[in-house]
Amino acid sequence: MMAASLELLDRELIVSALTVEARARVSQLELHSVLDSTNTYLLTGALTGWPSGVVCLAERQSKGRGRQGRDWLTPFGTGLAFSLLWRFTLPPPALSGLSLVTGLAVARVLRDFGVAEVGLKWPNDVLWRGRKLGGILLESGATADGVHVVAGIGLNIALPRQDAAAIDQPWVDLREILQTERISRNHLAAWLISELVETFVRFQDQGGFASLAAEWARFDRIAGQRVRLNLPQTMLTGIARGVDATGALLLETADGRLQPCIGGEISLRLEP
Ligand code: ATP
Questions:
Q1: What residue ranges define each of the domains in the chain, with the CATH number in brackets?
Q2: Quick one: DSSP state of residue 51?
Q3: Which of 38, 50, 131, 233 satisfies CB 3.0 to 4.6 Å to 172 for a cystine?
């Protein structure tokens, strides 16, 4: 059950609270009561020619997805789950770093919303004091029109404990961080969508991640820590040393070398 004081999402309210720039770039904004996954919905739409700038939100996801086949829990009305479809005209290598940039956009908004200690765990987990507040899933596809990307954001606002029992890692929600039930989901949704759209426009104009690397580093919560990277075939351990201009994690290995690791199928864990 959602908390009584939480407001339901309202399409008109969200559209009217977008920034002027975002409103000009959002081609369509859909609000659904239930979707299996907002990312799946837009990926399917992208293949049938939906334009750049389609946003869809769902009050509940019945099969919300994380990376590598993991689940993202979205009970009705307890958080935000939305995706944005974007068509980039950059060459695919320049798109590396986009998942970090998405995390950066979310972190900026949350910091300004009062989550002073919001941080990022490479490539794009949204953390507060080491607990997972949000997740980001970037997926891409290609058609004759070029490359498209779907960026999905899941954020906990007031997650009921009984639902959260299924989550197998430390988690947190905004209600606990901000110590209030009075959180405007519509206002926060509009703010996040606006920031994401404006960030994608700038990413396209600037041709990639390089100019945002320094800002990303300010939210980096694993720099200097011992980490383990689980790759599909192997495992690497070392000390996280930030990211390079493409968004690759720089891992200091036992021999002192800095090894760049790119995202995709890599999962990072802190070493105990
Ligand atoms: P990685 O660091 O590789 O991204 P991850 O396990 O954190 O790994 P995600 O794809 O970001 O992967 O998220 C999925 C995981 O997040 C789930 O396996 C579960 O542990 C956790 N999770 C699922 N729903 C929620 C939620 N609402 N809030 C916090 N954590 C959740």
A1: 11-216 (3.30.930.10), 222-270 (2.30.30.100)
A2: P
A3: 131
